[in-house]
Amino acid sequence: MRKTLRDIAHARAGDKGDTSSIAVFAKRPEDWPVLREQVTAEAVARALAGLVRGDVTRYEVESLHALNFVMTSALEGGVNSSLNLDSHGKSWSYLVLAMPVEVPSA
Amino acid sequence: MLRIGSGAGFAADRIDPAVRLIEQGRLDWIGFECLAERTLAQAQTVRAADPAKGYNRFLEARMRACLPPALANGTRIISNMGAANPRAAAEAAARIGAGAGVAVAYVTGDDVMHLIGPDTLLQDIGMTVREFGRPLVSANAYLGVEQILPAIESDATVILTGRTADPSLFLGPLVHAFGWALDDWAHLGAGTLVGHLLECAGQVTGGYFADPGHKDVPGLADLGFPLCEVAADGTATVTKLPTDGGCVTAQTVKEQTLYEVHDPARYLTPDVTADFSRVRVREEGRDRVAIAGATGGPRPETLKVTVAFDGGMEAEAGISYAGPGAADRARLAADVLRQRLKDIAALRVDLIGISSLHGTLAAPSNLERSEDVRVRVAARTDDPDTADRVLWEVEALYTCGPAGGGGVRGQVRRTFVTHDAYVPRDAIRAETGVIRP
């Protein structure tokens, strides 16, 4: 069944300099394998195409059922030189949460 | 068991949740984290204009509100509200607490302008200060527990620092209370998680979290700030006052655990290389979440320095269009602005309501039918006249632009750009002073 990631996950974005990080968490343990398999670094890079000009690195935290994405050259120069209204990239977690995912039918 | 609360997560955070937490939380300590990356550069320019200023602009208001309940409940206060001028901040706090005989400690030594030269490498961009080429405003090293511990060990009720690693403000009292050694990496890692969860205040109690229908938060308008009940082994329970709004759940704690963390197994602070990669959270009651599993390894040998430069001026202005054809009229206004301001290299035009925050995406959203659209133009320049012209051109759209444009607002503000350098730990000369009544 096709859903958006927001149906099965929650996320929070943060920034340090020109690096953005977005942590994505499975809402239920049974959704964790879907995250691990489908929310790849490549998929996140596609969701943020144009915004992120550097690399996307994915870290897994099994004990929190979490994926942490770290993106370099991601904030149009960083919080104090970007002309984006959202110079911190706070809203970018919702670009990732808008990603389509295929969830096994119950 | 130590009870430590959080009274602020940024420079202009609310004061009333901190007051309630001190009054009702039976706290041993409360920490106020008030310095973002560029806050200190702004404070440095304030100090340059007035040597008695340069500390957090809400310091006096916070002290007037928080000192009386802190004294009544035996709660000590620690904060980086000293910003660019910890000594002046301590003098200001001491004046407010003078009637009650309050001693205020301060820590200096984070200002390392003398260690920064033209050949200093800005590691995040791989350029030297000379190559970067903009005027230097401030350079402050992130101090850690080692540098602030003497102030914590003093008899001062209030401790004010400048640039300090955010979690260190909370780890310091834990190290002091439990007698952890400064190379006891496992405990320092566990305590760093406590500090990391507290440093953004309301972000672990339901702030920056609510998403109606997906993540509902009760009483968001009366959001409470968090406190941790910390055991001597570094495990802790995150909670809040039951009468405050917000919530502490496994989800809020998980989100904050990884907030602004890069490699979860290597979270670098001046105190420890913290390892959050095996953290466990467990809901043990309403608004009570137990945390365990954080640990750590040896601290880095260098300290991170935030080097701030003059970033020039940012001019920002907007005008709105609503009703039938609003999107087309807004696009026409944007075209006019791009033509009139085409000589400005660093220029951005957004259509708020159609495409703005995510406007740089390769495939931005395009809500053709929006009937309430704001044209926003932003520009960066070193020339004051150019900055003024951005505002002028937007205002001119009233009479020279598309039909029905309203609500012009604009501002020009000074900006700062920050980059990272690193200095040897032993180059830092931290000093502690205590101002007594």
Structural class of chain B: alpha+beta
Name the poorly predicted regions of chain B. none
Strand composition percent of chain B: 25-35%
The count of β-strands of chain A is 6
**How many beta-strand segments of chain B?**
20
Overall radius of gyration of chain A: 14 Å
Number of continuous helical runs of chain A:
3
If interface size is counted as residues with C-beta under 8 Å from the partner's C-beta, which chains form the largest one?
A-B, 39 and 54 residues
How would you state the average pLDDT of chain B, rounded?
96
**Please, what is the oligomeric state?**
heterodimer
Question: Strand content of the residues of chain A, in percent?
Answer: 25-35%
Shape of chain A: elongated
Low-confidence stretches of chain A: none
- What is the CA-based Rg of chain B, rounded? 24 Å
Helix fraction of chain B by DSSP (H/I, runs of at least 4): 25-40%
* Strand order in space, largest sheet of chain A: 2-3-5-4
> How would you sum up the global shape of chain B?
globular
Enumerate how many helices of chain B there are, as a single number. Answer: 11
- Tell me the span between the first and last alpha carbons of chain A: 9 Å
Helix content, binned percent of chain A: 10-25%
Task: Describe the protein's architecture and organization.
The complex is a heterodimer of chains A (106) and B (437). By secondary structure, chain A is α+β, with helices and mostly antiparallel strands. Chain A is built from three helices and six strands, in the order βββααββαβ. In chain A, the strands form two sheets. Chain A has a four-stranded antiparallel beta sheet. A two-stranded antiparallel ribbon of chain A has the order 1-6. The relative contact order of chain A is 0.31. Chain B is α+β, with helices and mostly antiparallel strands. Helices cover 29% and strands 28% of the residues of chain B. Chain B is built from eleven helices and 20 strands. Chain B has helices at 16-24, 39-49, 59-73, 86-97, 129-132, 145-153, 168-178, 185-198, 250-257, 326-340, 384-400; strands at residues 2-8, 29-32, 76-79, 104-108, 121-122, 127-128, 136-141, 158-161, 227-230, 236-239, 267-268, 273-275, 280-285, 288-292, 295-297, 302-322, 347-352, 372-381, 406-424, 431-435. Chain B has a ten-stranded mixed beta sheet with strand order 13-14-10-9-1-2-3-8-4-20, with helices on both faces. In chain B, strands 7, 16, 17, 18 and 19 form a five-stranded antiparallel beta sheet that branches. In chain B, α1 (16-24) links the parallel β1 and β2 (29-32). The longest helix of chain B is centred in the last third of the chain and has 17 residues, at 384-400. The interface between A and B is large, with 39 and 54 residues.
